[in-house]
Specification:
The protein contains eleven helices and ten strands. The protein is α+β, with helices and mostly antiparallel strands. A four-stranded mixed beta sheet has the order 1-4-5-8. A four-stranded antiparallel beta sheet has the order 2-3-7-6, with helices on one face. A two-stranded antiparallel sheet has the order 9-10. A hairpin with a 2-residue loop joins strand 2 and strand 3. Helix 7 runs parallel beside helix 9, helix 8 runs antiparallel to helix 9 and helix 9 runs antiparallel to helix 10. The longest helix is centred in the middle third of the chain and has 37 residues. The structure holds coenzyme a persulfide.
Length: 382
């Protein structure tokens, strides 16, 4: 297993880093205050092809492998976690499923725009079910050449910027086998896109509710076979979870750099606080967790790229990295003392931004469940 970046990946990382530093770094705090990211920022990413990162070139994408995708997401998250989640969701669970499970017509209709200019979203959760995804109650009743959708969805990232929603709805029996996936456009009659949630962090990335009231969707908009929706959703989330881990890694790396810089400047007890062992131990612990996170992420991405089962590895990367990010950003504030608690210092935003990463795309508890089930099924190898 080779976990080093290739020359190409190092160049891509440098190009994305340049873009983020020159175009986004100075604005990220304002996006957080305004709770809005301007479409121009998405456009800049689109110009670099980053809306089609994991889609093959013949369908308009860049054809990046998973290791390259996580490297890009980490870089964006070092500057703005809100922008990173928009891109990560669009790529992993918005556009890619249409390539992976779509028929020729669907690929031709959606991929050219989704890889170049338009944003996609994913809608599984509902007010009454999140972790227990197979319990969803939004219905899609077949009526001739249409499905009629009724129900409510929530926690939909990118909702107000989105062209296509990948919506999971019940077409059959209770449980996972009665769920199908649909591509639904933002101007679908019977669909109401709700207000943006007023979130603790990731401000600027919009999160909305959806309401379906007799939305009549052509059968041609169903993605995959009838009843295949749950497997489509979970398999896409497996990749998405490596992306969330990469976001968490980006934010905690930025928090670590801020804490280190501050510790070397801040004077107390006759010198910089970086000379105090209590502070050094915090910095050492941060670095340890960052390096361990990076290895877990690269391993999960490598397993995916080499065509192996990566479900358990993706859950481990997400679980470890997001919990590490919560710890690292917490400690970065601690190193800053009172200054870390005010908005003049960026670590305050980092702390708010990472908190949700232990929740979305599967809580830490769900990751533990996935890991345990997989170990008990396959056995634990030495
Ligand atoms: N990829 C593909 N298929 C999968 C899968 C995966 N990662 N995990 C499970 N499946 C399949 C199973 O193989 C099973 O099919 P078969 O009976 O044909 O074998 C089916 O899906 C049902 O699996 P299972 O019995 O494990 O389903 P559960 O209801 O117990 O749910 C969990 C499994 C809890 C893991 C799932 O509901 C989950 O991940 N929940 C969190 C959802 C989430 O991340 N929400 C956030 C969305 S972002 S807003």
């Amino acid at each position: 297993m080779n976990l080093d970046l290739t020359e190409d990946q190092i160049q891509i990382r440098a190009a994305v880093r340049d873009l983020c530093r020159s175009e986004f770094a100075a604005q990220a705090a304002q996006w957080d205050r305004d709770d809005a990211i301007p479409p121009a920022a998405i456009q800049k990413l689109a110009e670099m092809g980053l809306l089609g990162m994991n889609i093959p070139e013949e369908h308009g994408g860049l054809g990046y492998d998973a290791r390259t995708v996580v490297t890009v997401i980490e870089e964006i998250a070092r500057v703005s976690a809100a922008l990173a989640i928009m891109v990560a969701v669009h790529n992993s669970v918005g556009a890619y499923p249409i390539y992976r499970y779509g028929n020729d017509e669907q690929r031709k209709k959606y991929l050219p725009k989704l890889t170049s200019s338009h944003v996609g979203a994913f809608s599984l959760s509902e007010p009454g079910c999140g972790s227990d995804a197979a319990a969803l109650t939004t219905t899609a009743r077949r009526d001739g050449d249409r499905y009629v959708l009724n129900g409510e969805k929530n926690w939909v990232t990118n909702g107000r910027h989105t062209w296509t929603f990948l919506v999971l709805a019940r077409t059959g029996e209770p449980g996972p086998k009665g769920i199908s996936a649909f591509i639904i456009e933002n101007d679908q009659p019977g669909l109401t896109i709700g207000k943006s949630e007023d979130k603790m962090g990731l401000r600027g990335s919009d999160t909305v509710t959806l309401a379906f009231d007799n939305a009549r969707v052509p059968v041609a908009q169903r993605l995959g076979a009838d009843g295949e929706g749950f497997k489509i959703a979970l398999s896409m989330l497996d990749s998405g979870r490596i992306g969330v881990a990469a976001q968490a890694l980006g934010v905690m790396t930025a928090a670590f750099h801020e804490a280190t810089r501050y510790a070397q400047q801040r004077q107390a007890f006759g010198g910089p606080i970086a000379k105090i062992q209590a502070v050094q131990f915090k910095l050492a612990e941060m670095e340890r967790r960052i390096q361990a996170s990076r290895l877990l992420i690269r391993k999960a991405a490598w397993l995916k790229d080499s065509g192996q089962d990566f479900i358990r590895a993706a859950s481990m990367a997400k679980l470890y990295t997001t919990e590490a990010a919560t710890w690292v950003t917490h400690q970065a504030i601690q190193v800053h003392g009172g200054y870390g608690y005010v908005k003049d210092y960026v670590v305050e935003r980092y702390y708010r931004d990472v908190r949700v990463m232990e929740i979305y795309e599967g809580t830490s508890e769900i990751q533990r469940l996935v890991i345990a089930r997989s170990m008990l099924k396959d056995g634990v190898k030495a």
